[in-house]
Amino acid sequence: EIALANGFVEKQSWQWLNATTENVRSLRNSSVDVVMSLLSWGFHYPISTYAQSVHEVLRPDGRLIIHLRGNKGQEDELRRFGFTCSTVVTSPGAHKRFQGKTALYVCRAESATHRT
């Protein structure tokens, strides 16, 4: 919303989606540049909930930006679904609601497993 309000992105090129599995799957394969989930997927929903669908809709050069709980094996699970991730920021449990380390990751879907 901030990016839209500041003119960083054009409204017609940005789409918010209520990320039910059905809504994610309704997007065309390889049609999405960025998927972002902060304090939701990986916190309240297992990685397996959306991983395959997100992998399918991301463009080959697209990115997944996801905030995960640390030490839960979630990065390994993303890797099993064909994502390669880099840690951008780690937090030593600063969020009171979620005890323990959390981290923000930027991931890309490996093109070898992309469906066309």
TrEMBL record:
Gene3D superfamilies named in the record: Vaccinia Virus protein VP39
Enumerate the GO terms in the molecular function aspect: S-adenosylmethionine-dependent methyltransferase activity
Q: Which residues form the Methyltransferase type domain?
A: 8-66
Domain of life, per the record? Eukaryota
Extract the SUPFAM superfamilies matched here. Answer: S-adenosyl-L-methionine-dependent methyltransferases (SSF53335)
Q: Please name the InterPro entries in this protein's record.
A: Methyltransf_11, SAM-dependent_MTases_sf
The protein's name in its UniProt record: Methyltransferase type 11 domain-containing protein
